[in-house]
Amino acid sequence: MSSWPTEIRLSKDRRTLHVAFEDGASFALPAELLRVESPSAEVQGHHPSQKTIVAGKAAVEILRVEPVGNYAVRLGFDDMHETGIYAWDYLRELGEQAQEKMKAYEMALAEKGLSRERKR
């Protein structure tokens, strides 16, 4: 593990997780990105070809941030998803690649005729 956090803070509106690392890097990670890129098998599958595109999460909120040992946090979302364990290196990767990952996510949604917005 090369990345070590010095701060993990959930915004008051529960839509952004702020993560700072000991080397000075810091990221504001949107709840939507964290949810749709959850490291859980439910989202990622057991092989890259099995990844699930999760639609309708533009307004998702983080309800819980729970430590998992000294290496990760488990996030609980308002859609009841709570099986992803986010290791420090993975949080850093999401921060560093947030724009690229969101762009790829939006393209995948468009290819499947899906939306970031929740169906009403």
Automatic annotation (TrEMBL):
A GO MF term? metal ion binding
Keywords assigned: Iron, Metal-binding
* Residues covered by the Gamma-butyrobetaine hydroxylase-like N-terminal domain: 8-92
Q: Which InterPro entries match?
A: GBBH-like_N, GBBH-like_N_sf
Protein name per Swiss-Prot or TrEMBL: DUF971 family protein
Species this protein is from: Bosea thiooxidans
